Amino acid sequence: MIVVMQPNATEEHIQGIVNTLYELGLNAHLSRGESITIIGVVGDKSKFLEKNPQLMPGVERLVPISESYKIANIKFHPEPTTIDVRGVKIGGGNFTIMAGPCAIESKEQLLESAWAAKNAGAQILRGGAYKPRTSPYSFQGLEEDGLTYMAEIREQTGMPVITEITSLRALETAVQYVDLLQIGARNMQNFELLKAAGKTNLPVLLKRGLSATIDEWLNAAEYIMSEGNEKVILCERGIRTFETSTRNTLDISAVPVLRSKTHLPIIIDPSHASGVREYIAPLSKAAAAVGADGLMIEVHPNPACALSDGAQSLNPADFKALCEELKPFIQLAGRKFE
Ligand code: PEP
Ligand code: MN
Predict the structure, then answer these.
(1) Which residues surround ligand 2, an ion (CB under 5 A)?
(2) Which of 45, 105, 159, 258 has the fewest CB atoms lying closer than 10 Å?
């Protein structure tokens, strides 16, 4: 439930409601808009309702929230959320590109990818150190060594860095090196991992599960947010369908659907969505046109020799060309890309 305050409600009125909620053992989630303040009620609201809150000073009306996700809900927070990562803004009118190799293979490979990403205009460097591979015999990632390269290259390039955490152990290590955590498709409903990420204060990029509905995805975001970390970014990376000509099917409609349900920033990953290098440019343009807040794209200095996902990785020249081609789409969508 949310308590919508009157436009002329005073700070005292707002604090009165917040204190009542705390006294009842509930949590209050404040969202201050330009003219009205909304107080989200987190917890069992029945005790609060017994106090007749609609009669409390400054209260305009009470609105029930039927969805099980609350803090992620647009009704709790009508303004779009902007997340700041070392000066790079994600959401709220910005267009942010995260790029880099699927897996960190060596310091040189990561450094080359980082400069390729940065020179083309990407703001954030991605790189997998713990790889959730389908086969146990495939390259599994450099783990902590890879993260030390990331931290070093962040200092050299000034780019914030993101890596995937696949376990609680990986999370404990990664928080010492990176600026954003990624929870991948295969772990979208790993509730222990979601809760642990919610106890950190790093932004979390939460990818959509292979067969997850939007409702399940938003509930997964709520797991992170309900632990106190509200810096969640959603990443659509394609879903499983009957179609086999692409690795997954990019659910472009997820963007407007999410916009109507949540205030969280939305990123599209056309690399994992398609699995095919040639489709990344048109899908990236579609992502910008549909109003996504940015992209995550795999870039490798030499895709033919990549240890993972080479077929969907762009080389530096193709990535630079794509970023140029994207600019008019980003501009038409009314977003800032700096
Ligand atoms: C990745 O980004 O490297 C990755 C494994 O993606 P996903 O979880 O979307 O498959
Ligand atoms: Mn990959």
Answers:
(1) 102, 309
(2) 45
